[in-house]
Design goal:
143 residues, 2 domains, four-stranded antiparallel β-sheet, three-stranded antiparallel β-sheet, globular
């Protein structure tokens, strides 16, 4: 199995992507379009929740409240989207967080772990959910 790992490094005011392919391949790519001044979204965190039968309405209501609380709190809350299924597996809810970089993940997790209101709302959501999965996507191109 080959594993990929990417780092962003600033050398002489230029941003470089260091791409590591294990076991042994290293590649340095200049990234002219990834300047730190631009506020482009670089990473999407997608949380897919497979809900229990008939629990979609309650789950959507709870997540709308969670998103409102995140917006009201002036804590480091990233842009978020709430999606529900129109086709495919029924009773699926998706929450996407738009992160500017990998470094935004830790502050986001700390805020969610230490804010009592988020914890309270999420505890109400847990019984509505059968399973969940989290996937991170790196945005390769934005027009």
């Amino acid at each position: 199995m080959v594993t990929n790992l990417h780092f962003y490094v600033k050398i002489n005011k230029r941003l470089y992507i260091i791409a590591l392919k294990f076991p042994t391949f290293i590649r340095y790519l200049p990234s002219h379009n990834l300047t730190p001044q631009k506020s482009r979204i670089m990473v999407i965190e997608r949380n897919v929740f497979h809900l229990k039968f008939g629990m979609a309405k309650e789950a959507i209501t709870l997540w709308k409240e969670i998103l409102q609380e995140a917006k009201k709190s002036n804590l480091a809350s990233p842009e978020m989207r709430l999606l529900s299924d129109l086709s495919g597996p029924a009773y699926t809810l998706v929450v996407e967080l738009h992160l500017k970089s990998w470094t935004d993940m830790n502050p986001k997790q700390a805020v969610w772990a230490t804010t009592a209101r988020f914890q309270e709302l999420y505890k109400q959501f847990i019984p509505l959910c059968e399973s969940a999965e989290r996937t991170y996507y790196k945005i390769e191109h934005i027009q």
